[in-house]
Amino acid sequence: MPRRERRSVVGVEAVGPYTLVRIDRGGLEPGEPGQFFMLEAPGRLLPRPFSLCLAPAGELGFLVDPIGPGTEAIAGVAPGDRVHVLGPLGRGFRLDAPRPLLVGGGIGVAPFPYLSERLGGPPALLGFRTAWHAEVAALVPNAEVVIDPVLVTDAMPDGHDVLACGPEPMLEAVRELAPGAQLAWEAPMACGYGACYGCAVELGGEWKRLCVEGPVLWEAA
Ligand SMILES: Cc1cc2nc3c(=O)[nH]c(=O)nc-3n(C[C@H](O)[C@H](O)[C@H](O)COP(=O)(O)OP(=O)(O)OC[C@H]3O[C@@H](n4cnc5c(N)ncnc54)[C@H](O)[C@@H]3O)c2cc1C
Ligand code: FES
């Protein structure tokens, strides 16, 4: 069940260009991989959505790509700071895939460390812009890394159940090659629990709130 709690930051580490923020778990549950949490961005009005990256005992870990004011504020927290955390929210990955392959790009690898742990360390194929960005692949066991201009879709083997997260063009390309893939989509989110319709996307002629019906969607969804 989602809860909203004010928790303490217990660790902040740089991983390549990203920042791993570890927060004391308190009464919050980690939920299923691919679900997300709304994190308070200190000094900003609205919280921002983040996938759960790591779930060690007593903690929740979030990988932050500082691309704007909210993510910069979250990446700028220090141990001992207290932030409001709401979650877990949305619908995560199905874990019943017989031959899972994790496919991700850039900050899209954020949910994979926890997903990999829950699936017992399946193979992963991860794509990055530079070797510096690729440092984050160390968080994902059994990962094969490709760097631009090689794309994950150039290296994707057949015969797997694909679970993917990354930029929209990557997800579209993965869907072409693996029509049954589970895809974690993104949209700007203001509330995270279905109230504001800010995250509504049109899929198959129907409007869906990505924070409720997603962020992970698959063919039958
Ligand atoms: C379910 C979900 C899980 C996410 N998990 C992570 C995560 O684990 N780590 C992480 O670093 N980021 C994650 N994000 C993205 C993150 O929430 C956004 O980057 C953040 O909200 C941007 O806020 P900002 O104030 O820093 O930048 P803004 O100024 O709000 O945005 C900077 C630019 O990015 C665009 N943008 C903002 N949010 C999104 C979005 N959600 N989708 C597409 N474009 C967007 C804006 O239009 C703008 O061009 C996730 C998003 C969703 C929806
Ligand atoms: S973020 Fe408010 S309805 Fe989805």
What keyword list fits this structure?
single chain; about 220 residues; alpha/beta; six-stranded antiparallel beta sheet; six-stranded mixed beta sheet; globular; binds flavin-adenine dinucleotide; binds FE2/S2 (inorganic) cluster
In short:
With 221 residues, the protein is of the alpha/beta class. The protein is built from 5 helices and 14 strands. The strands form 3 sheets. Strands 4-3-6-1-2-5 form a 6-stranded antiparallel β-sheet, with helices on one face. It has a 6-stranded mixed β-sheet with strand order 9-8-7-10-11-14, sandwiched between helices.
Draw up the topology in text.
Layout: E1 3-15, E2 18-24, E3 36-39, E4 48-51, E5 59-64, H1 69-75, E6 82-89, E7 100-105, H2 112-119, E8 124-128, E9 143-147, H3 152-155, E10 161-165, H4 168-177, E11 182-184, E12 200-203, E13 206-209, H5 210-213, E14 216-217
Parallel strand pairs: 7-8, 7-10, 8-9, 10-11
Antiparallel strand pairs: 1-2, 1-6, 2-5, 3-4, 3-6, 11-14, 12-13
The structure holds flavin-adenine dinucleotide (FAD) and FE2/S2 (inorganic) cluster (FES).
